[in-house]
Amino acid sequence: MKKVSGRLTLLVLVLLVSLVMFVPSYPPLYQALPAWATRLLPNKGITLGLDLQGGIHMVMEVDEDRAVEIAVERSVTSLQDALVEKKIPVESVKRTGPGQITIQFQNADLKIQIQKLIDDYPTFAEQPSSGSANSVVWELRDAEAKRIKDSAINQALETIRNRIDQFGVAEPVVQRQGLKQIVVQLPGVKEPKRAKDLIKETALLEFKMLDEDSQIKLDLPTRIPKDKEAEVVAQMEGKLPEGDQILFERAIEKDTGREYRIPYLVKKRVMLTGDVLSDARVAIGQFNDPYVSITFDSKGGREFERITGDNVKKRMAVVLDNTIYSAPVIQERITGGRAQITGTFSTQEANDLAIVLRAGALPAPLKIIQDLTVGPSLGRDSIEKGIKATLVAGAMVVLFMIVYYRMSGVIADLALVLNLVCLMGALSALTATLTLPGIAGIVLTIGMGVDSNVLIFERIREELRSGKAVRLAVDGGYDKALLTIIDSHVTTLITGVALFLFGTGPIKGFAVTLCLGIAINLFTALVGTKVIFDIMNQRRKVEQLSI
Amino acid sequence: MLEILGKTNFDFMGKRRYAFFFSGIMVILGIIALIQIGRGAANLGIDFAGGTAVQLKFDQPIKIDEARKALESNGLGDAELQEFGQDNKLLIRVKASTTIEEKTAERVVAIFTKEFPGNHFVVDSTTEIGPTIGKKLQEDALIAVLVSFAGIIFYIAARFEFRFGVAAALATFHDVLAVLGAFYVLDKEITLLVVTALLTLAGYSLTDTVVVFDRIRENLRLRRREREEIMINNAVNQVLSRTIVTSLTVVLVLIPLTLAGGEVLHDFSLALLWGVIFGTYSSVFVASPLLLLWPGTPGRLLKRA
Predict the structure, then answer these.
(1) Residue A92: which domain range?
(2) How many separate helices (H) and strands (E) can be counted in chain A?
(3) Which of A51, A389, A448 sits opposite B261 (nearest CB)?
(4) d(CA A24, CA A30)
(5) pLDDT (tens digit, 9 = 90+) per residue, A205-236?
(6) Which residues from A are below 8 Å from B143, CB to CB?
(7) In the sheet where A100-104 sits, what is the strand order?
(8) CB-based contact (8 Å) between A375 and chain B?
(9) Is A515 within a domain?
(10) Which of A321-335, A392-406, B157-171 has the highest mean pLDDT?
(11) pLDDT (mean) for A65-85
(12) What ipTM goes with this model?
């Protein structure tokens, strides 16, 4: 007979460690502990998955090509400024391809002068073959396009992180996945729609001048119903002066609360963008209407002063993501680097606007390619149902084992409890995430956990039938069942590992509980129950085994 | 000693023709389902096909045909509806035809807010999956299936003889295909969770087969004089109560999980439940008789002298 004390100690030790590890996963108990005790314990246990506590799991892709286009458009604007400054008369400067700028001019003599400008734009290369006597074509260098794409995703990550930090979510996850995807996980978010809007908004703030000289603006309707924007744009197509566009202001009828839109003729040229902001705060105006007060950094402040000084008595549009918030008349040169964004919004909307302005714009629009949102009520429901199913399942198995195997069944049930305690302890120790399929994995572990004992018990019965003494029958049963048990566990483990490696989210949760459950089960079945049988046999000579 | 079955002596091997016939039909159904999945004609869940699912929980019962009418009159006629009666829950699924940019989820919520003003609801969950992610998940699922099958066959072939490995793998394929076929025939949605269940049952069904094979191997070593068919049949009979009891304990936990585990886990548990039943059947009626079909000299199951 092998000595049992060593194995018994091991068993008790494992049980204790599991219990200790599990404590942080059960907040009521953890918080009730004195400070010295919590300091000794790990501070994190099992976290609930998004499907159990509610929340958002989003995978987004940065529209990289658009990021390149935006960068090139910015160069177009700066090139236009430079041409004006150097007094070189050109017909047009336009982006004519994803990374292509074409400069057209009447006077062919200017060509050399224009070609020289490229010295200031080292990220571009001239394409002599595409140009003509009256045009010069520049192409963005490949290395630069790659750099823009790369930094676009990093910048987007940074921006989203900032926004979420300011929105306030406990334990958010913002990660890069693969080359161009961003994963955002917001557990326990109460207002999923608001959070999503906040993340997704490009938040490109632009200051543009209204075109007040063109007669075309008289053709525009004064107001149109919401959703009819595209029709107006289509109508005016082709009639617009070069370098102009139509943008809409969002407005609300005071009496009815109905939303409508006001079209404006706006110059495409961007005077100033939001990246020169240093701060944005919500303030309340004199009529109790919220507005966002923005502060420029020193360079932006000087620039804003110059622009307003040059355009006194003209109207400037404050544009966010191609929607006009307001289009005030510039009364005087604005010094001090401050401005206000007014418009029709609630305090909450003003709040969110301030957040996105502070956090900065996204380098390019985001495309949501996966969005899983679980409301808190479903999460609660799922936990309740999961626990109920687990309890019923556990009770049925426990009862069955006792009815079918009597005293030995009780031993198997003890092993089952040990199994569950160890599993919860292991999940806590790994700070694993428990998902709904994970709960199913636990339930399955209960069912498959007793399997090993069934295999052993049936073997013992066979041995007993063949007339062996109890002690020999027990030892023989364990020995002979051993290989079968290992084989059956390993095969299940193989699928568990494959699921863990290739599964996502909830599936991973299932794979983790399944794999851990199987591994622990191997231990409890082979060491746990055997120790009890051995103790029974050691105390006195057992004539009859209740099995 | 309480026993479900005493000492039995069923002629399982003699019934193998019927078993092969029945299994053949199930496997053919499963293969049809596989082909349909490949062609994109099967009822794939939105996690694979891409699309939008919105689950709403209403205060009062909602009639499914009224809900369908409301969706149809608002241009979402191709939505699929599923209700979870006792909780007044309604699941609305719109498949790939739309992209996420169209905000289908918001549209669905808006339609129900407008059309059922008297019946307040909360949004239980929304799932929107773009077509690229669907493709990725399909690929991942396929890789997981291939890796686990390769691993299992390799393990069994290493532990047993090659013939056992092949028979066990075929029986496992049979179980997975049978459940897949059953899901296809009943037009149940094949989701990521269902595929997970199929993989899990592959592991489980193998467990069952291993138990039987272990005994066959043991008997082959002990009594090599007997006819192969009788030897296998005896082995199956000897472990029959083991096979049934082990499956029974798993069935016992899967029944409450299917009935009370909630809508998310229902199909998952159901696939596992059917899988365990098929797996038990196949270890007795498919895997073991398959050993007999192996070409070569009869009575040479085990090479080792």
Answers:
(1) 65-144
(2) 16, 19
(3) A389
(4) 5
(5) 889 999 988 888 778 888 888 878 888 888 88
(6) 502
(7) A92-97, A100-104, A135-140, A124-126
(8) yes
(9) yes
(10) A392-406
(11) 86
(12) 0.85
- At a CB cut-off of 8 Å and minimum separation 6, what does B8 contact? B237, B240, B241
What tokens were used for A131?
């140009």
Which pLDDT tens digit goes with each residue over B226-276? 787 888 888 899 888 888 898 999 999 999 999 988 888 899 999 999 999
Report the pLDDT value the prediction gives residue A184, as an integer from 0 to 100.
93
For residue A358 the two structure tokens come to: 């502070």
Q: Taking the model in full, what pTM does it have?
A: 0.79
Query: Which residues 53-82 in chain B show a CB within 8 A of chain A?
Result: 55, 57
Q: Which residues on A lie below 8 Å from B141 (Cβ)? A: 502
Contact residues, chain B, for A192 at CB < 8 Å:
126
Name the CATH topology of B13-43+133-292.
Multidrug efflux transporter AcrB transmembrane fold (1.20.1640)
Nearest Cα of chain B lies from the Cα of A441 at a distance, in angstroms, of 10
**Helices of type H across B160-227:** 162-185, 192-222
Q: With beta carbons under 8 A apart, name residues in chain B contacting A502.
A: 140-141, 143-144, 147
Q: What is the CATH number of domain B51-128?
A: 3.30.70.3400
CA distance A62 to chain B (A): 14
| A499 contacts on B by Cβ (under 8 Å) | 144, 148, 196, 199-200
Domain with CATH 3.30.70.3400 in chain B: 51-128
Query: Are A488 and B141 within 8 A, CB to CB?
Result: no
**B100, pLDDT greater than 70:** no
Chain B from 156 to 215: CB within 8 A of any A CB: 156, 159, 192-193, 196, 199-200, 202-204, 206-207, 210-211, 214
CB contact under 8 A, A502 and B141: yes
Task: Indicate the pairing of strand B121-129 with strand A205-210.
Answer: unpaired
**Beta strand pairing status for A47-48 and A433-434?**
parallel
Task: Measure the CA–CA gap between A273 and A294, rounded to whole angstroms.
Answer: 12
CA torsion angle for A234, A238, A244, A249 (degrees, to 10)?
Answer: -20
